[in-house]
Amino acid sequence: MKNVVTLDEIREVELRPQEQFAHYMSLLNKDIPYYLSNQYEEERIACPGCHAEGSTEVFMKLGFHYLACNQCGSLYVREIPTNEALNRYYQESPSHQFYVQEYLTRLESKTHQEVFYRRVNWILDAVVEYGAPREFYLDLGTKYPAILEQIIQERFFEKAQYYSPFWMKESLRNSVAPIERLANQTDHSISVLSAFDYLDGIFRSEIFVQHVKRVLAPRGILVLTTRTISGFDLQILGEHAKSILPPNRVTLFSIEGLVALFENYGLTVRELSTPGQLDLEVVANFMRHNPQFDVPPFIRYLIEKRDQEAHQSFKAFLQQHRLSSHARLVVQA
Q: At what angle are helices 18-35 and 83-92 packed, to 10 degrees?
């Protein structure tokens, strides 16, 4: 299984000004009880990754109970809201309007544009490396329209299409979720499917993978990015991590859970990397704002006493051993 060490992440949510995050949290504290509390269709028992049924509740956040799988270590919420409740939240809630507006503003940054082009090259290189067909490319839950526009300009595929996610500004009135659109695709019709920053935000990841298995053409590939609980910053910060927030971050697989998720449905993980470089900065930023936070002595010493050379070496270690919380994968049918 290939492991790439590089920079490919967009994670301003952890590093944005504290007052913006505080405002977002104040909105969430009002909206989640109003739109989602007691609007559950069921409670999850088995791990969505390895399917083991043993779990431990590790914390509760905004009314959602986060469980850790006793076998693979994946983190997931127990409660699964109804589709109706989720659609209403995404279409009406002030917290989500704020989230979308902040996100759309950041799309214009130079950092985002650089990441777009790197991801385009990653997709095109993966097609060549793994011998995927080039008939139909579909980007699911699009957050980066610039990626598709670039791929269309390259004329690398006979057909290219994307589905704007139902939470983006131009789609807020559309209640059809990306996973429902994927369900309508013809069997074995998609050559390359991309799903950036999508997997950790859906409650029924196993249904997503079942659809992926069905719609991918022979030797077709899925390329995706997601957050993983195996990452250094999430392991250190746990429930205090800004990126673990319902309903947009509800399933954070471990590295082992990610592999099991796809292999359980007969898919092959060709590449699994954690190429992030911001884990240490995220922890350091949290420590600055929360000086009483109980950080392991070694981590405090590393952050406060050692120089940039040591920090860079530590980041390289995290990447090499798949211990950063930003994961990217190539999965093949």
A: 140
